Amino acid sequence: MTESEKFQREELAVCYRIFAHLGWDELIYNHITLKLTDQEGAFLINPYGLHYSEVTAESLIKVDIYGNKLEQHEFEPNPAGMVIHSAIHAARPDLHCITHLHTDAGLAVACSKEGLRTDNFYSVMLHNRVSYHDFEGLTVSDDEKSRLVMSLGNNDQLILRNHGLLSAGRSIEEAFMNTWVLQRACEVQVACDATGKPLIPISNDIAERTEQLVAKQVGASGVGKREYAALKRLCS
How many structural domains are present in the chain? Predict the structure, then answer.
């Protein structure tokens, strides 16, 4: 194992613990994958059978974008995880880390005909960044891969209708932050809807300016760097 792979395994294992700490786990289901930067076409995925809190650097499975295990392992990867993540890793080399959630709030918005509205502090940050993919049942068929990729397009956020949330990034930190913002946007929308009260709209002008405003807030540190570091300290 190269030093690069060892480091990336350790980082991804920490990410699984962070997701478990935040309550983003779902029994033994769902997945976070990380493309190995020094091995073309290879990425890491969790063993199908372990809870997120059980995942370690050693237990992660190395696979290729065709669904083949690249090492001996007692577990297999989740078939749905392989379809979704291998498709996107193959088509979008810029996205090194991909996350998939089945949270209550995420599913509530995914099941909503209108989807995610741009009317709260978090959802406005996702203006023009969220794509949608229509539900085709359990995502275990290879022929759905092309449609998943087409649905995502050039965005880094995908709401799988009737299914859940998918976020991605150029690093673990960026993917984590994208996941967190999308999840918070869904939580706030669900909470607002529960009040039954009229909502204050956000103008398109403000929505269009949000990318610039967020860039100013993030500064030179990079998306998710500070936030992810804080969660790593908490969960280490």
Answer: 1
